[in-house]
Design a protein that fits this description.
alpha+beta; Beta-Lactamase; 4-stranded antiparallel beta sheet; 4 helices; globular
Length: 131
Amino acid sequence: METIYRMTLNDAKRVANAAETEARFNNWDVVIAIVDHGGHLLYLQRENAQLGSIEVAISKAKTAVLFRTPTRALEQMVSDGKQGYLSMPQMLPVEGGVPLLHNGQVVGAIGVSGVNSVADGKIANAGAKAI
């Protein structure tokens, strides 16, 4: 048997708060989505960001948790010519999704959308550090 860690709503809010701090510092309006270890939405926040960014943020978070890797790495693989990634189910290889780790275990992920993908990634990484 092994211990399985699970994120609480308070954990998700702490991650989102750290991400929001980074976004506000840069005056960026974004959607921040936090999913649990199974890719299910646990927390979402949006203020002034475009509506289209809601599903994108959720998809980035799901991709990061299901593939246990930052979406930036997947985006790089596509850029390097591995086009097969584009047809995989539950795959959005665009920077802005980062797995959330606790004691080396993926407990969820954060997805951010609303600015450009590099800025989204910066915000998501700021949030991930709070876990």
